[in-house]
Task: inverse folding
């Protein structure tokens, strides 16, 4: 057994939290009102734009001839238990004509926990987000979830898909869970994760981004990233290299700048 021949991952549509976080980051809102803080992340809803994105994605999947998704022969459909994900899945399936589809709801594929993000100042939020780009696997919001834990959750789903013997899977989840899923499929080390998700357009997972993982012989071979709402199609790309040679290891680590030579006392200690 191996991976399904095709796994289609879709991020939920634009949510109220997406809008609110942009307002916080821009400084248009200085702090979160108590009623926002009291709202569980699981209960955040789609905006009208998010609903439109989901509906257009469903229609696009229905008419998509190129990848044979128009047959919509998914043998396993699973959705995060967050409200915005369930809304997205419902609109997609209805617009795609799959009104009798059976959907599994799985809390394990929910959003990454952002902890006390709403308690932070704009400066603190900016600092943590900067660190997440520098060291994504080991940085998180205070009392939040490290992406390594999100990756473990993604690995659990991948193992279930392998055991299930599925051929065509549809998943609606969240941006950072999808990042974690793809990074696990591709066995991405930190540097490759940064390069793919922070420094390339292909790894920019917008609302209702559709990412298809194509496998042959049970092994992932290609990724196809599209967004029907924004008219984006990055085409198919090969799975990044999984393993490194000893020379690869040294070449990559040579790019990292040490800090000890900037400390005069350390140089004196070394001479002694």
Result:
């Amino acid at each position: 057994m191996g991976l399904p021949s095709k796994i289609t991952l879709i991020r939920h549509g634009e949510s109220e939290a997406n809008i609110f976080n942009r307002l916080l980051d821009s400084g248009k809102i200085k702090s979160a009102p108590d009623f926002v803080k009291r709202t569980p992340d699981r209960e955040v809803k789609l905006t009208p734009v998010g609903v439109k994105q989901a509906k257009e994605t469903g229609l696009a999947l229905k008419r998509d001839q190129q990848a044979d998704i128009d047959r919509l022969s998914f043998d396993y459909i699973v959705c995060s238990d967050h409200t915005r994900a369930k809304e997205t899945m419902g609109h997609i399936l209805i617009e795609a004509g799959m009104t009798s589809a059976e959907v599994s709801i799985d809390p394990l594929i929910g959003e990454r926990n952002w902890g006390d993000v709403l308690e932070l100042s704009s400066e603190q939020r900016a600092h943590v987000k900067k660190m997440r780009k520098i060291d994504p696997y080991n940085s998180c919001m205070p009392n939040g979830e490290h992406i390594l834990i999100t990756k473990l959750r993604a690995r659990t789903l991948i193992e279930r898909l392998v055991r299930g013997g599925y051929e065509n899977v549809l998943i609606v989840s969240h941006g950072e869970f999808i990042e974690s899923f793809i990074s696990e499929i591709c066995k991405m080390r930190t540097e490759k994760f940064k390069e793919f998700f922070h420094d390339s357009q292909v790894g920019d997972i917008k609302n209702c981004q559709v990412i298809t993982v194509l496998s042959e012989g049970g092994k992932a071979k290609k990724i196809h990233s599209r967004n029907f709402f924004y008219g984006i199609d990055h085409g198919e790309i090969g799975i990044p290299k999984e393993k490194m040679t000893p020379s690869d290891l040294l070449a990559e680590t040579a790019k990292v700048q040490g800090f000890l030579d900037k400390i005069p006392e350390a140089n004196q200690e070394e001479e002694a």
Residues 6-242 form a domain with the Rossmann fold fold (CATH 3.40.50.1240). The mean pLDDT is 89.
